[in-house]
Amino acid sequence: MTRATNKINPAGIPLDRGNRPVTPCARVCRVYAFHMTTISFTYETDEGEEIEAELPAKFEVCDRCRGHGTHLTPSIGEHAYTPEEFDEAFFGEDDREEYFRHGGRYDVTCEECHGRRVVEAVDVAACALDPELTEALKRYYAKLEDDYAYERECAAERRMGC
User: Are 42 and 62 in contact, with CB atoms under 8 Å apart?
Assistant: First the structure.
């Protein structure tokens, strides 16, 4: 068994000479402390002061590719085919199978997770444990709503030719 030194990691676990966590089990095994990820965002107070805040994050399966790392090419996937159009565009049985197969010839690397199959998301359960984080979470959601409203406004202006 590897002997512990007087070093201790932030989680309170003693470290061996190679700075690896030492476990109390009899056989040699290693527990690796995971780096806690956070999501940073900046919000503006009522007085106009910008404040940067961090929220705990966790990894979730990507909604865009459903954890496959690829999705259908947007130029094809955003088109609603009638059965007749689909038969014309994908006339071979192999073409039809490739259209529905994840990772097929009509797929591209996921635009959301960039092929990693997971994305960072705010860990709401961890935020609920701390009133300060709960307040920051409310500000985070308010900022997301404001950003979304701004994007909708910009899109409407572009449609009007502005």
Answer: no
pTM above 0.85, yes or no: no
The residues spanned by each domain of the chain are: 1-34, 35-159
- Whole-number CA gyration radius for the chain: 24
Closest C-alpha among 158, 159, 127, 160 to residue 141:
127
- In tens digits, what is the pLDDT along the chain, a chain of 162 residues? 444 455 666 555 666 666 666 555 433 444 444 557 899 999 888 899 999 999 999 999 999 999 999 998 888 877 788 888 888 888 888 888 888 888 888 899 999 999 999 999 999 999 999 999 999 999 999 999 999 999 999 999 999 987
Residue with tokens 């984080």: 133
Q: Which residues have CB under 8 Å from 40's CB, separation 6+?
A: 52, 53, 54
CB atoms within 10 A of CB 99: 19
